[in-house]
Specification:
Order of helices and strands of chain A: EHEEHE
Number of helices of chain A: 2
CATH topology of the largest domain in chain B: Rossmann fold
CATH topology of one domain in chain A: Alpha-Beta Plaits
CATH superfamily of the largest domain in chain B: Thiamin diphosphate (ThDP)-binding fold, Pyr/PP domains
Largest sheet of chain B: 7 strands, mixed
Strand content of chain A: 15-25%
CATH class of one domain in chain A: Alpha Beta
Largest sheet of chain A: 2 strands, antiparallel
Distance between the termini of chain B: 54 Å
Helix content of chain A: under 10%
Number of strands of chain B: 15
Oligomer: heterodimer
Shape of chain B: globular
Distance between the termini of chain A: 28 Å
Strand content of chain B: 15-25%
Radius of gyration of chain B: 21 Å
Order of helices and strands of chain B: EHEHEHEHHEHEHEEHHEEHEEHEHEHE
CATH architecture of the largest domain in chain B: 3-Layer(aba) Sandwich
Largest interface: A-B, 21 and 23 residues
Shape of chain A: elongated
Chain lengths: ~100, ~400
């Protein structure tokens, strides 16, 4: 699954202009759900305090969107392109290392 | 050579669908559309029409079956009226958004309650914004011609949209008129076989009707709107081509005796026939009155309307539906909106009349013109007036 590191806005593959829409908005290529920016309606985003995190992986397993992955330092972080801001990771974190910050836009 | 013969308009609609080589018909009978689908069922049962006739339990199912048929690339036809059109309402939006060129005849009829099986335009107006191309016809010949044109318009690669043909219930559906049914070989020449560009096909799967999240929905809807707006040029082009092939040409706003007219009357559907005779009489009395017949309801012909009315002093619009609590009849509201920014425009007067099959006679149109001129001179207490109501 292609992970987009983009914080927010650079146009993703699925974010077509109106002239690029297929007839009837039909989907002609399988597996294009990875192009869908499900992260665009969140009102809060998870912010991890890596000093508190002990890499227990609970956030990784509880995330209903499956958008939390291990970064190069072995800590777990959400891909904000997909994260809907549900806050389950923050609620489950036994170390209270995840805070939900207001989306400032 | 095509024969001109006396035929019930509903039967002729079925024959026009047959001449168009329709593959699938799915419909639920409802007065006053019944004869159309009865005739098609008969043609299929007799083996005269090689098509699948899908009987269903409701109009919602009829339109849903039509979606599926059209999605595999079958030429699809249906017909309904009134409550039936309302029952299929949510599916109508899907047909246009998924760009499926279903053709549907709507035998315009009033809505309940009270139950009325008679004609007016309440059903159409409630389905005004569903994204279909919508054409009004005023007699049997126009109905036949436009059913055939509708397939070619809807299936054009530049369009790919469903088309409604509006014919007034009873006043047209149940009337026997002299109609020229075109020869099959001429229709075959005019109407190429339907080839849907992205049909449902196991060899090349596509997903239709997927989720459109907020990140894409606006783009999809704008693409749909621009497509419908652009379809107007194709409608005009195909009407021209039909004219060349069959000698009868149609236009989005037909003009009748409008030369030098100070007062214009605007009607839709079968009432235009009575209005023409009324205009003849008024012209005979020296009144400078002309008639506009709005044929293309969607996409709305803005430029044509502006051009047509700019030299008139008064424009009287007759609606056959009430937009309850609104600013006037739906047609009059749109006509006003279309002309709002024009520097030179007539005074616009709106009447609602002809509800639930109430007749408007020749004298009625003359009365409306008189009253309309009076309102244009000295105003009215109301946004619109109703014609022919008892106190």
């Amino acid at each position: 699954m292609a992970k987009t590191k983009a914080k927010e806005k650079p146009r993703a593959k699925g974010e077509l202009g109106w002239k690029e829409i297929e007839i009837g908005f039909f989907i002609t290529e399988p597996g294009n759900s990875v192009e869908v920016r499900t992260g665009d309606w969140k009102s809060r985003r998870p912010v991890v305090d890596f000093k508190k995190c002990n890499k227990c992986t609970l956030c990784y397993f509880f995330c209903p969107e499956g958008c939390i992955a291990k970064n190069k330092d072995g800590f777990f972080e959400a891909d904000l392109f997909y994260c809907k801001g549900c806050g389950i990771c923050a609620a489950e974190c036994p170390k209270e290392a995840i805070a939900m910050a207001e989306e400032a836009k | 050579m095509a024969k001109r013969e006396g035929i019930e308009v509903s039967v002729a609609v079925g024959d026009a669908a047959m001449l168009s080589d329709v593959d699938v018909v799915s419909a639920y009978p409802i007065t006053p559309q019944t004869h159309i689908v009865e005739h098609l069922a008969e043609l299929v049962a007799n083996g005269e029409l090689r098509a699948a006739y899908i009987p269903v339990e409701s109009e919602h199912s009829a339109m849903s079956a039509c979606l599926g048929a059209s999605a595999v690339g079958a030429r699809t036809f249906t017909a309904t009226a009134s409550q039936g059109l309302e029952l299929m309402h949510e599916v109508l939006f899907v047909a246009s958004a998924m760009r499926l060129p279903i053709v549907m005849a709507v035998a315009n009829r009033a809505l309940s309650a009270p139950i009325s099986i008679w004609g007016d335009h309440s059903d159409v107006m409630a389905a005004r914004d569903v994204g279909w191309i919508q054409i009004f016809v005023e007699n049997g010949q126009e109905t036949v011609d436009n059913v055939i044109c509708a397939f070619r318009i809807g299936e054009d690669r530049r369009v790919l949209l469903p088309v409604m043909i509006h014919l007034d219930g009873f006043a047209l559906t149940h009337v026997i008129e002299p109609i020229e049914l075109p020869d099959k070989k001429d229709v075959d020449q005019f109407l190429p076989p339907f080839k849907y560009p992205l049909p449902l096909d196991p060899k090349k799967p596509v997903t239709m009707g997927a989720l459109g999240s907020p990140f894409i929905y606006t783009e999809v809807k704008w693409a749909q709107e621009i497509n419908l707006e652009k379809a107007k040029d194709v409608v005009l082009e195909i009407w021209q081509k039909f004219g060349k092939a069959f000698g009868r040409t149609y236009s989005p706003i037909e003009q009748y005796r409008t030369e030098g007219a100070r007062v214009l009357l605007l009607t839709m559907g079968s009432y235009s026939e009575t209005a023409m005779v009324a205009v003849d009489k008024m012209r005979g009395e020296g009144k400078e009155v002309g008639l506009l017949k709005l044929r293309l309801w969607r996409p709305f012909p803005y430029q044509e309307l502006r051009k047509t009315v700019k030299n008139a002093d008064v424009l009287i619009v007759l609606d056959r539906a009430i937009s309850f609590g609104g600013p006037g009849g739906p047609v009059c509201s749109e006509v006003k909106a279309a002309l709002y920014a024009e520097v030179k425009r007539p005074k616009i007067v709106g009447f609602v009349g002809g509800l639930g099959g109430r007749d408007i006679s020749m004298a009625g149109f003359a009365e409306m013109v008189e009253r309309g001129m009076e309102i244009a001179r000295s105003g009215s207490k109301r946004e619109f007036e109703i014609y022919g109501v008892r106190e």
